[in-house]
Write a sequence for this structure.
């Protein structure tokens, strides 16, 4: 079975899950974090090389202050408690997103986890935090423009690979599979450039209910897809193209 080298997940539906149980939205975020923890291990044990989890978008800052600060607390707690486990599982942790907006204590926890897991060679785990793809693309355009202004780069030399390497996701390969839970079928400002040839898997399952079985189902669907990258090719040639 062909496995994606990179899975990206839009973990959506925590609030609705809690609402169904007549509990506060934050209850859903706490359960959602436990599910994320489990899915990280499942991906790692299945030999997935890269996993990006959309944990908090640039637009999520507009949520009620109380919800935002609880999400930050959950994240800080997760990192403090889980870093040892990540090391044990040989998982390297990093983040993409606008770190400057993240509270100092959370930023410190992130830095510690990144440092402590920097030597790990198994799963490359990336949290998209305070992340927005348009912001990321804007930042990369600015960086490239500065290189041009300094005379380090000629305008005619700007190509896809220059843009690619200026993005915060570099050098992680583009996601092969993007999963979104909760029935919504949109990207919500996630990996717009990188998703050019990703396979999408949408499920109605709310993130707090997402299980290893759902992951396997997504992997099976992925394995059955034929990726053509715009060409007309036989199966084995398509396989080679993606490697
Ligand atoms: C996803 O669940 C988690 C975050 C965006 C932080 P939501 O909080 O968006 O849950 P719904 O979509 O309102 O149910
Ligand atoms: C996307 O979910 C962001 C995360 C899952 C972290 P949202 O719930 O914020 O997206 P919309 O508002 O439904 O598009
Ligand atoms: Mg949502």
């Amino acid at each position: 079975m062909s496995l994606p080298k990179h899975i990206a997940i839009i973990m959506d539906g925590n609030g609705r899950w809690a609402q169904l149980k007549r509990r506060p939205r934050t209850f859903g975020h706490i359960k959602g974090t436990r599910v994320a923890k489990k899915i990280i291990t499942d991906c790692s044990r299945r030999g997935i090389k890269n996993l990006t989890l959309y944990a908090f978008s640039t637009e999520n800052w507009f949520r009620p202050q109380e919800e935002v600060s609880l999400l930050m607390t959950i994240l800080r707690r997760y990192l403090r408690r889980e870093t040892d486990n990540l090391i044990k599982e040989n998982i390297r942790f990093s983040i993409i997103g606008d770190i400057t907006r993240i509270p100092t204590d959370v930023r410190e926890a992130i830095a510690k986890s990144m440092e402590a897991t920097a030597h790990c060679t198994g799963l490359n785990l990336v949290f998209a935090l305070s992340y927005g793809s348009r912001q990321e693309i804007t930042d990369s355009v600015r960086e490239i423009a500065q290189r041009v202004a300094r005379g380090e780069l000629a305008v005619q030399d700007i190509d896809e690979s220059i843009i690619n390497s200026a993005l915060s996701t570099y050098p992680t390969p583009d996601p092969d599979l993007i999963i979104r839970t909760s029935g919504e079928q949109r990207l919500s400002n996630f990996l717009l450039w990188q998703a050019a040839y990703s396979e999408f898997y949408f499920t109605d399952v709310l993130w707090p209910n997402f299980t290893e079985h759902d992951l396997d189902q997504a992997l099976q669907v992925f394995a059955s897809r034929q990726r053509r990258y715009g060409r007309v090719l036989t199966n084995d040639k398509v396989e080679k193209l993606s490697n």
User: Anything to note?
Assistant: The longest helix spans residues 65-88. The two ends are 15 Å apart (CA to CA).
